[in-house]
Specification:
With 992 residues, the protein is an alpha+beta fold. Helices cover 37% and strands 26% of the residues. It contains 31 helices and 39 strands.
Length: 992
């Protein structure tokens, strides 16, 4: 055996097959078949061979023996003629199946179960062949149809895969030669009837340098044919003894050849050996010899018959390949089936060990046994029979090798190529690609996040999230240049003391490092505090104060102009790689543009909020009838102002109007509409119009603005004397009522369409509300969002009011004042302020972006105490004025308001006198004591009194002038039964 360049073991089959092409075309068909038979017998180490051919009459299905070699004459009759359908004989089976057959030759009987035509089945005794004789048969083809069989009689050992392949290849070759072109001289007789020329075959064998020999083991006689003599360089008159052959063998090869001979004799097996011969003419060459034994009746070898052919050229080629294998740059080794090392080249010795120490030893005893999973994968490759390759790290030099395992018939070969440099290059390339991918991912992530950042605060948070952790930084500082000073607009990871020190410093004098970066537009990377102090000695205390030891100072340049600096700082000293510098510079550019956009937004948003606040009430009135708190939350997205508004408008008789509304849309036009509606509401409220008429007038105003203008509004008038709240709503969410016991009720009165879409009249609901209750008014921004419908929002708002914090803040918190002291109102107002904050925090979280603004108005309802109310019915007669003065004098005395008795008597007398003179009854007088003293006179007439200028000689027309002069305020309001004229006088502080 030997190795080919691919590492595959070459066998004697590989040596013999090329001889087929060496046989010349001058051979006759008979000589071709004789040659094929001879080679087949020799290849399988057979004792005999035979060729059967289908040559009987048409349809006879008989196979006749046309060639034979080595069969005893007594055995020939049994094989001369057989049927093609006889499954007991190998030639017939080979023709039937068209494939290789190997079966016993001695027992030819077929059981009846398998062959029903038992009478036709002959009993083949074959007694003249050894009992253990086996037959290997292959079909011979003519025009792709099996017409014969080539058979080899062998011992009990099964042919190997290579021998089967050779036998099939020989049959194909012979069949092809028989069916190929023939000489022009046609022949009318079959090929097997051709006269043996003898010389043609012998000449072909000589040309192919193939000889045959026979050794009589008992006598020692050894006979060579002409080809063998010429191959060995022996004269024809040589001494025909085994010793003559041994004398030709190279002395170094004699022990090996004799050992192979003895092994064949003792084991009755095939003899095979390759050795050098020293010819008499002084030349030396390599030959391959193969033979089989002939046994006597006792099973003892008596003859050895064999072939010999020249392998000098192939040996030289193999040795050249071996030299190439031994000294090639890749490591190569071969192991046998017991995993013992059979070959190592020079490079493999460096890895496994010197050949003198490891050759013949187990592979796994050396460094190969330390390679993880190598043994498992080698055994798997050998078992599977499929070449495979993978990378391993060799333990002796810690380098990486690509090992390719190639299974061969007697073991396994391995090629190891050093791929360390390749892997390192690949690793560097992968690292570079990974770094580029990471940089691209960071840029994409920062770009996406900055696209959603709206305010300067958002930009700082996004920059910190995407620039600190990936670089291991501990601080981010963003300063913008305004005028000649640097102002901090955002910082993360810096002490407040340091930020206070650097905020607003002069750029040139206060921080030259930052000024230089802005002026030069070039970044600066500082690796340590020592370097920082060297660059800016005047700022030597900054590193310790900032608690930083490395800095990346990056200019912020947007639209071609520097606007500030972005400083990424580190707690520990560090160096900056080229990738770090490139990525930080790219990220700072993105931050600069996002910051410029955010600052524009902040400015616009600030202006919008200022406008919004200017349009809303700057300070709420504090009527005694309610304790109120309000909150306004602008939308968190967009810069345009919203149209939400609220109002608390004191009315006569301690009544109060509670108003909340929302102009649909955002922008200056909507804000202007909101301002117009607020002004109109104040005017209409002071005219003492009922809620439905107020909404009707507002509807006209909105309708006049165009078809695209709409607004919602809720207008409520609360009377603390009766506890009745008159309420009308145009498309607005319903208010919530928190009762003194903590229960929450949605006052879902029937709504009218929004202003601008409604058709008057509007409906008004009158509800009697409990004293100490809480009325909650709000716009849709509180309860409605993209993820929540308005019904869910109202339910959630109700739930917040019933939670423990909500109940504590919404409840009365103690006996409420009866239009009581201001300090009680202030305490209650603080609690209601916290309640507003609680509602906004729960319903509109700070982190939730909202597209709509929100207004909330909560009002604690107070009732006027019965002791502060005095009501009398007066007759519709002149005496009514006198009675009115008596009632006023008595009640004000009880209330200890003696200083107001005179003016109040005069006011009551004048108002009652006007009623008696100009109106009709019934006449009522009512006094209300609160923060002011209210005197009301009502009658059944709808005529409105008016002040007129009286001439000097007129007897009347001066009464209302007197009323206006004596009272702080006065007015007229309509009632269901007529009208009411009221006056209001301030009560001295010590008396209220």
């Amino acid at each position: 055996m030997s190795m080919d360049p691919a590492g595959r073991v070459r066998t004697w089959c590989d040596e013999r097959l090329p001889l087929l092409s060496a046989v010349g075309g001058q051979l006759t068909d008979r000589e071709v078949m004789e040659y094929a038979l001879t080679q087949a017998v020799s290849e399988l180490g057979g004792i005999a061979g035979a060729v059967h051919w289908s040559c009987g009459p048409a349809g006879s299905h008989e196979l006749r023996l046309v060639l034979a070699g080595g069969l005893p004459p007594s055995a020939l009759p049994e094989w001369e003629e057989i049927r093609e359908d006889d499954p007991a004989l190998a030639p017939a089976r080979a023709v039937q199946e068209g494939a290789f057959v190997w079966m016993p030759a001695a027992d030819g009987r077929v059981p009846e179960a398998r062959h029903p035509d038992a009478e036709r089945v002959r009993t083949h005794t074959h007694g003249r062949l050894p009992e253990a004789t086996m037959v290997a048969a292959v079909p011979l083809f003519a025009e792709n149809t099996p017409v014969g069989a080539l058979s080899v009689f062998t011992g009990p050992g099964a042919p190997t895969t290579e021998q089967r392949g050779f036998l099939l290849e020989m049959a194909r070759w012979a069949s092809g030669r028989l069916s190929g072109p023939r000489p022009a001289a046609g022949r009318g007789h079959p090929w097997w009837q051709e006269q043996p020329a003898g010389s043609g075959l012998r000449q072909a064998l000589v040309a192919a340098r193939v000889g045959s020999w026979e050794w009589d083991i008992r006598t020692g006689e050894m006979v060579w044919d002409t080809a063998g003599l010429r191959l060995l360089g022996i004269p024809e008159d040589y001494e025909r003894r085994i010793e003559s052959w041994v004398a030709l063998i190279h002395p170094e090869d004699v022990p090996r050849v004799m050992a192979a001979t003895q092994e064949a004799l003792h084991g009755h097996g095939v003899y095979e050996a390759e050795y050098r011969v020293c010819r008499p003419d002084g030349t030396t060459g390599w030959v391959q010899s193969r033979a089989h034994l002939a046994l006597n009746g006792h099973g003892e070898p008596v003859r050895m018959i064999g072939r010999v052919w020249d392998t000098t050229e192939s040996r030289i080629a193999r040795e050249s390949v071996g030299q190439a294998l031994r000294f090639m740059s890749d490591a190569f080794w071969a192991v046998n089936r017991e995993w013992r090392i059979t070959f190592l080249n020079v490079e493999a010795e460096r890895l496994v060990g010197p050949s003198v120490d490891v050759l013949g030893g187990p592979l796994w005893d050396g460094p190969a046994g330390l390679v993880p999973e190598l043994e498992t994968r080698c055994r798997h490759a050998a078992l599977d029979g499929t070449p495979t390759g993978f990378d391993i790290e060799w333990p002796t030099d810690s380098r990486w090798y690509h090992i390719r395992l190639v299974p061969v018939p007697d073991g396994l070969t391995a090629y190891l190529t050093d791929v360390t440099d390749t892997r390192n290059r690949a690793a560097r390339r992968e690292a570079a690609e990974r770094s580029a991918a990471e940089q691209a991912a960071r840029i994409r992530g920062l770009t996406s996040a900055l696209a959603e950042a709206v305010t300067t605060h958002d930009v700082v948070e996004v920059a910190a999230a995407h620039m600190l952790a990936p670089f291991g930084a501990s601080g981010l500082l963003i300063q913008v240049l305004e005028g000649e000073r640097l102002h901090v607009v955002g910082a993360v990871g810096y002490p407040q003391a340091f930020l206070r020190k650097i905020d607003g410093i002069a750029a040139a004098e206060g921080h030259p490092l930052l000024h230089d970066v802005i002026a030069s537009r070039h970044h600066r990377f500082i690796a340590s505090a020592t370097e920082y102090v060297e660059l800016a000695p005047a700022l030597a205390d900054y590193p310790a104060l900032a608690e930083k030891n490395a800095w990346a100072i990056l200019p912020l340049i947007a639209s071609g102009e520097p606007s500030g600096v972005c400083v990424v700082s580190f707690a520990e000293p560090r160096s900056f790689t080229a990738d770090d510098r490139t990525l930080l510079t790219a990220l700072s550019g993105m931050v600069a543009h996002a910051l410029a956009r955010a600052r524009l937004y902040d400015a616009e948003h600030a202006r919008a909020q200022a406008l919004q606040r200017g349009l809303l009430p700057q300070e709420l009135p504090t009527p005694s009838a309610v304790t109120a708190a309000v909150r306004y939350l602008p939308a968190s997205t967009g810069t345009e102002v919203g149209g939400d508004w609220y109002d608390i408008i004191p009315l006569s008789a301690e009544r109060v109007a509670l108003v909340i509304g929302d102009v649909m849309g955002h922008g200056l036009a909507e804000a202007a509409t909101m301002g117009r509606l607020r002004t109109a509401v104040h005017t209409l409220a002071h005219l003492e119009l009922p809620p439905e008429e107020v909404l009707a007038h507002l509807n006209d105003i909105v309708s006049d603005l165009g078809d695209d203008s709409y607004a919602t509004c809720l207008y409520a008038v609360y009377d603390p004397v009766s506890g009745v709240c008159s309420m009308a709503r145009a498309g607005h969410p319903p208010p919530l009522l928190v009762r003194p016991d903590g229960t929450v009720e949605c006052l879902d009165i029937e709504p009218d369409p929004p202003l601008g879409a409604a058709e008057p009249p509007f409906s008004t609901a009158e509800l009697r509300l409990p004293g100490h209750g809480l009325l909650v008014l709000y716009t849709d921004g509180l309860v409605e969002s993209a993820t929540r419908d308005i019904d869910e929002g109202i339910a959630e708002c109700s739930r917040v009011l019933t939670t423990d914090p909500g109940r504590r803040l919404a409840g009365p918190g103690g006996p409420p004042p009866a239009c009581g002291p201001d300090e009680d109102h202030r305490a209650d107002r603080k609690r209601l302020d916290r309640l507003c904050d609680t509602l906004l925090d729960a319903m509109v979280p700070a982190q939730q972006l909202t597209a709509d603004d929100t207004a909330v108005l909560v009002a604690r309802l107070h009732r006027t105490a019965p002791g502060n109310i005095a009501v009398w019915q007066l007759p519709d007669e002149p005496v009514a004025a006198s009675l009115a003065r008596d009632h006023v004098r008595g009640r004000l005395g009880e209330w200890h308001l003696d200083e107001l008795i005179t003016t109040t008597e005069l006011l009551a007398s004048e108002l009652v006198g006007n009623v008696v003179r100009h109106a009709r009854g019934p006449v009522h007088l009512r006094l209300l004591r609160g923060r002011s003293l209210i005197c009301e006179v009502s009658d059944g007439s709808a005529t409105t009194p008016r002040i007129r200028r009286a001439a000097e000689m007129d007897e009347g027309g001066r009464g209302l002038q007197l009323v206006a002069a004596l009272s702080q305020r006065w007015g007229t309001r309509y009632t269901a039964d007529g009208k009411c004229i009221w006056t209001e006088q301030p009560i001295p502080p010590q008396r209220s």
